[in-house]
Specification:
Blueprint: H1 2-7, E1 32-33, E2 42-43, H2 52-56, H3 66-77, H4 80-97, H5 101-105, H6 129-141, H7 173-176, H8 184-189, H9 197-207, H10 221-232, H11 244-254, H12 264-287, H13 292-318, H14 330-344, H15 349-353, E3 356-358, H16 361-364, H17 370-377, H18 392-398, H19 402-406, E4 410-412, H20 416-445
Antiparallel strand pairs: 1-2, 3-4
Protein name: RGS domain-containing protein
Keywords: Membrane, Transmembrane, Transmembrane helix
InterPro entries: RGS_sf (IPR036305), RGS_subdomain_2 (IPR044926)
Length: 454
């Protein structure tokens, strides 16, 4: 019950680091507490079993899986690029760390500027690019300024760009409803290379004040170029909503190296947007077990039942029956008030009784043609735009009968932690209904008999 109260205090989930509202200075109504997860803090009121790390790692069941999280960001919040970039960066970091030492030496970490640690290597009119490039080449190929490092013949060639390996998730993750990162090579083979990534990336580097192009000898340079064109360059198909300062700092690092540290200026902004805004909103949204037509129907049903109880109480008060009969109005009042309270929280008490939920509109035709392909593309970190306005299911759902929408198909809720939260909300609705009905009954019982009806 305490969990339900914390989740439904309706706080503002817009943090100071949120890319959608950088002017907010605090998380209103929320407190940060320490956690044993990989993140230093989490939102209080959300159980550890539904934490962000648990969802990303595939430790939750439907409807709180990573795939459900991605669908929510695509169709409800319209900010899936943050999760897509986060999954790619996590996978990329693991693949980069798995390279040999000679290959990693080609892309050393971003040096920290003493004037501004966020901007990495200093650049501008007073700094020549040749000096920066010379330093990077010296670090990559020389063990000391005087003695060049000769690669061992038994080790991989340091000038060879390593192959683009598949992500850390297997193909079976699609079936489990968890995240999956598509291999880089599969993007081109399926014809998703629809934009000139190199040209867009070059324009992005020039807009950041850099008149030179990065070295192709860096590991995963082609992949990083695509990421710059899709996520970092202004006007990209999945442009991240970050500040121009963070964007320029990232570009200054990426042009010199493909080391994961080059993305550090963007990492915190994306993680904070997911951890403090998208994840809490997703948990609250997932608690709703009914679609909007079903919730509207439940609200109307609750109001109608309350009015029915009121009519019964008035008729019994105007009759010659004893005052005790007026307590019969408490039955419809309890039913109506509990139904109305639960519907106000987005829950249908009937669906809660069978631990089920209405399926979402985009799930109705998930197995038909392009919609199923679109679902997989959402997990491909370097695919096309996130726009889903032209998907076929939208027109089909608009033509669907309103009565059919109310009694839409249902699926069982498998996540135990989510059912516990819903149980707490249902218990709250019953307590509120009993207390309100008792007050109404006491008010009508104290009234004198009208004697106007036989």
């Amino acid at each position: 019950m305490v969990v339900g109260v914390l989740l439904y205090r309706r706080p503002s989930f817009v943090s100071s680091t949120s890319p959608r509202d950088s002017s907010s200075s605090e998380l209103k109504g929320l407190s940060l507490v320490t956690s044993n997860s990989s993140h230093p803090s989490r939102i209080s009121g959300i159980p550890d079993s539904l934490s962000f790390d648990k969802i990303i790692a595939g430790g939750t069941c439907s409807p709180i899986t990573c795939r459900d999280f991605m669908s929510y960001l695509l169709y409800v919040e319209h900010a899936a690029e943050n999760l897509q970039f986060y999954l790619w960066l996590r996978d990329y970091t693991e693949r980069f760390n798995a390279l040999s030492e000679n290959e990693k030496a080609l892309s050393p970490p971003v040096p920290v500027s003493p004037l501004d640690p966020r901007l990495g290597p200093k650049s501008g009119p007073g700094v020549r690019p040749d000096n920066i490039v010379s330093k990077f080449l010296s670090d990559a190929f020389c063990s000391s300024p005087q003695q060049p490092a000769v690669p061992s013949p038994t080790k991989p060639n340091p000038f060879t760009t390593p192959p683009h390996t598949p992500g850390i998730f297997g193909d079976s993750d699609y079936e489990l409803g968890n995240s999956a990162i598509a291999p880089f090579s599969s993007i081109e083979s399926r014809g998703l290379n629809k934009i000139n990534h190199r040209q867009i990336a070059a324009e992005a580097y020039q807009s950041a004040g850099m008149g030179w192009q990065p070295f192709s000898v860096h590991p995963f340079r082609d992949e990083v170029t695509r990421v710059v064109a899709i996520y970092i360059a202004e006007g990209g198909p999945r442009e991240l909503n970050v500040s121009s300062r963070d964007r320029m700092a990232a570009l200054h690092g990426i042009v010199h190296t493909t080391h994961p540290s080059a993305f550090d200026p963007l990492r915190k902004t994306v993680e904070d947007a997911l951890l403090y805004q998208a994840h809490p909103n997703f948990i609250r949204w997932s608690i709703r077990n009914g679609n909007p037509p079903r919730i509207i129907f439940a609200i109307c049903l609750g109001v109608g039942t309350i009015l029915t109880g009121l009519m019964i109480a008035l008729l019994l008060t105007l009759s010659n029956l004893s005052r005790g009969w007026r307590a019969m109005a408490a039955i419809p009042w309890v039913v109506g008030i509990s139904t109305l309270f639960a519907a106000h929280k987005g829950m249908c008490v009937v669906l809660h009784g069978i631990h089920a939920r209405n399926i979402h509109p985009w799930e109705l035709w998930a197995d038909e043609g392009s919609n199923g392909e679109s679902s997989k593309e959402s997990f491909e970190s370097q695919a096309t735009s996130n726009s889903r306005e032209d998907e076929p299911w939208r027109a089909k759902y608009e033509k669907r009968n309103p009565i059919r929408k109310i009694f839409e198909k249902q699926v069982r809720i498998k996540e135990p932690a989510l059912r516990q939260i819903q149980n707490a909300i249902f218990l709250q609705s019953m307590i509120v209904a009993i207390i309100a009905s008792a007050i109404l009954c006491a008010a009508f019982v104290t009234l004198p008999s009208g004697g106007y009806l036989p």
